Amino acid sequence: MLFFFLLYWDTKGEKNNGFDVLYHNMKHGQISSKELSDFIRERATIEETYSRSMTKLAKSASNFSQLGTFAPVWDVFKVSTEKLAACHMELVRKLQELIKEVQKYVDEQAKAHKKTKEEVASTLEAVQNIQSVSQALQKSKENYNSKTLELERMRKEGATQRDLDKAGVKVKKATEVYKSYVEKYASTKTEFEQKMAETAQKFQDIEESHIQHMKEIIQSYSCSVEDTHKQIIEVHKEFVNNMENTSAAGLIQKLAESKGTGKERPGKTKHKHTAYKFVHLGAKPRKRKPFTIPDNSFYSSSDSEEEDERRKFHVEIKPVQPNNGTHQHKATIDELKASIGNITLSPSATVRHQHISRRRPKSSYPPKVANSSPPPTAPLARAESSSSLSSNTSLSASNTPTVGTSRGPSPVTLASQDPLPIAVAFTESVNAYFKGADPSKCIVKITGDMTLSFPSGIIKIFTSSPSPAVLSFKLRNTSKLEQILPNQHLLHSDSSQSDTNTKDFWLNMPALTAYLRKCSEQNPVSSYYNVDVLKYQVCSNGIQSTPLNLAVYWKCGSSTTDLRIDYRYNPEAMQPPGPLTSVQVLVPVNGGVTNMQSLPNAIWNTEQSKSLWKLNDISEKSENEGSGSLRAKFELSDGPSIPATLAVQFFNEGSTLSGVDMELVGSGYRLSLNKKRFTSGKTSII
């Protein structure tokens, strides 16, 4: 017990501060944990910045000249740079996970320190007792010495016997007091040393555990960095090997194969006389025949003359009517404009597959699909939430989905032999109506959207493959959903499933490929394209389904209005529980408000006659475990006020209210990101 010796020898002093030193040393351990978390977070930020810069550099390699024999080398640079960016982004992911572990340890450390403080309360009392007894002992000793010296002085000076008797009485009394404090100090010291021995051992155990835990965190940090360095070395070796295997002859051979016009020499050219027949432009036109292509002409294998005749294209060229040259040119342009104006790209155009389906074996893309056209620009209209996978989505942004937009540079290297990366986002919106303080009158509606995000590089793989792997997934925890509305243009499901807690889906790959190609044409610089695949409504259980329970109380008088809003954080409504951020409460108050007093402080908008509270993040770690009240007193010039409807806003990143989740089925794809969040929709109190 090294700490015990520190405390023991400290009792020889006058202030007995050893306990205070060790207690604050324990508290400093918590500060060190937070500082270590900040250090790792800063390292992760640096790595992420570097990874994004490398991704941008790799993307620039795609924009370099693709002409000449050197063009394939840029692909080697691009792939190698993308893999380096992926290595650093993987380190970012590991560091972020480590930060979560450190934060979890900080929280556990705070709880342990709080418990220790309660357990050593009796030791603190013993410290205070011995400090008090030590001071009293010192004073009694000084008083005893003073009275004894006074008696000796009086004897030497020949004082009267009466004065000597009085002084003797004082010496005797001082001696008794001094003796009593000596005895009291001895008993107090025994209790003090016993308590200190126990406390010293407790503090030492805490410190040893703390140091060991910190070393484990640093070890994880070191291993993550070391693994990244090994990956970078492997990527560099691969780059060196690729460049060594890239010869001048090989590059020239690739150019010849891609740009060659043929392997045989052209023969001699023979002149052939061609007779031309002149036709009078004013001749009577022949009867027009329709331009038709039979549906079965694409798939029929018949060689009959009848079929050949049906496959012929019957084309009639209408003679041009004689007219003035200027008017003729003008009419041609007008006709051309009219024709172009009438050309439209219909999203409902279909491609039939009846003949293909009858050749498909019974053991076979999912059932056949009658409509493989690209879906419209917004496959699913959404009113409650945004479809962007961006992490910096603003709650005040438009609720219109932004389909086909970029999430940012892709840190992923796409190769045909590797599983293709996709990302998924679940975005939910809770709409709640609270009436006064009655929880039974709370009405709740929760809706959600599922969005898939594809890196731009996947389009090339889809289009170059005659039959890309079907993207299939399983939706979990569907028993909590009242209704599921899949995107009928892109998504198929098995309606015969008996498991109420899961549901299987697979995508129409031709339609998905066509849609992603269209998005790429509309926004070719994007690195990611988002696709809304389904909407759903969550089963609600009144106020128990809301992450923030609310109640309001009004007291309206002729000259003043008193307002109180009670709120309570409800972690059971979320999967998993997470903090509510950007919490705002907006309250309209009429009656001519001349002055407002609020706790906590609110902002009063005179033009709109509204008060606004902006609160810190609300969670179980908040004061009173996320419960509190907003209070305000309004002075009126034209009262009384009429109770109005309050609006509440909040946001969460990392959780959902439904607990719904997604799992890929089969091979060919991997899930690189699973993003979950929810936001308040129309949340009001009256």
TrEMBL record:
<feature type="domain" description="F-BAR">
    <location>
        <begin position="1"/>
        <end position="251"/>
    </location>
</feature>
<feature type="compositionally biased region" description="Basic residues">
    <location>
        <begin position="352"/>
        <end position="362"/>
    </location>
</feature>
<dbReference type="GO" id="GO:0048268">
    <property type="term" value="P:clathrin coat assembly"/>
</dbReference>
<keyword id="KW-0254">Endocytosis</keyword>
<dbReference type="InterPro" id="IPR001060">
    <property type="entry name" value="FCH_dom"/>
</dbReference>
<dbReference type="InterPro" id="IPR027267">
    <property type="entry name" value="AH/BAR_dom_sf"/>
</dbReference>
<dbReference type="GO" id="GO:0060028">
    <property type="term" value="P:convergent extension involved in axis elongation"/>
</dbReference>
<dbReference type="GO" id="GO:0030136">
    <property type="term" value="C:clathrin-coated vesicle"/>
</dbReference>
<feature type="compositionally biased region" description="Polar residues">
    <location>
        <begin position="401"/>
        <end position="414"/>
    </location>
</feature>
<dbReference type="InterPro" id="IPR028565">
    <property type="entry name" value="MHD"/>
</dbReference>
<protein>
    <recommendedName>
        <fullName>F-BAR domain only protein 2</fullName>
    </recommendedName>
</protein>
<dbReference type="GO" id="GO:0048488">
    <property type="term" value="P:synaptic vesicle endocytosis"/>
</dbReference>
<dbReference type="InterPro" id="IPR018808">
    <property type="entry name" value="Muniscin_C"/>
</dbReference>
<dbReference type="InterPro" id="IPR031160">
    <property type="entry name" value="F_BAR_dom"/>
</dbReference>
<dbReference type="Pfam" id="PF10291">
    <property type="entry name" value="muHD"/>
</dbReference>
<keyword id="KW-0175">Coiled coil</keyword>
<feature type="domain" description="MHD">
    <location>
        <begin position="419"/>
        <end position="686"/>
    </location>
</feature>
<comment type="similarity">
    <text>Belongs to the FCHO family.</text>
</comment>
<dbReference type="GO" id="GO:0098793">
    <property type="term" value="C:presynapse"/>
</dbReference>
<keyword id="KW-0472">Membrane</keyword>
<dbReference type="Pfam" id="PF22699">
    <property type="entry name" value="GMIP-like_FCH"/>
</dbReference>
<keyword id="KW-0168">Coated pit</keyword>
<feature type="compositionally biased region" description="Low complexity">
    <location>
        <begin position="385"/>
        <end position="400"/>
    </location>
</feature>
<dbReference type="InterPro" id="IPR054713">
    <property type="entry name" value="GMIP/FCHO2-like_FCH"/>
</dbReference>
<dbReference type="GO" id="GO:0005905">
    <property type="term" value="C:clathrin-coated pit"/>
</dbReference>
<feature type="region of interest" description="Disordered">
    <location>
        <begin position="344"/>
        <end position="414"/>
    </location>
</feature>
<feature type="coiled-coil region">
    <location>
        <begin position="88"/>
        <end position="157"/>
    </location>
</feature>
<dbReference type="GO" id="GO:0072583">
    <property type="term" value="P:clathrin-dependent endocytosis"/>
</dbReference>
<dbReference type="GO" id="GO:0005886">
    <property type="term" value="C:plasma membrane"/>
</dbReference>
<keyword id="KW-0597">Phosphoprotein</keyword>
<feature type="region of interest" description="Disordered">
    <location>
        <begin position="287"/>
        <end position="311"/>
    </location>
</feature>
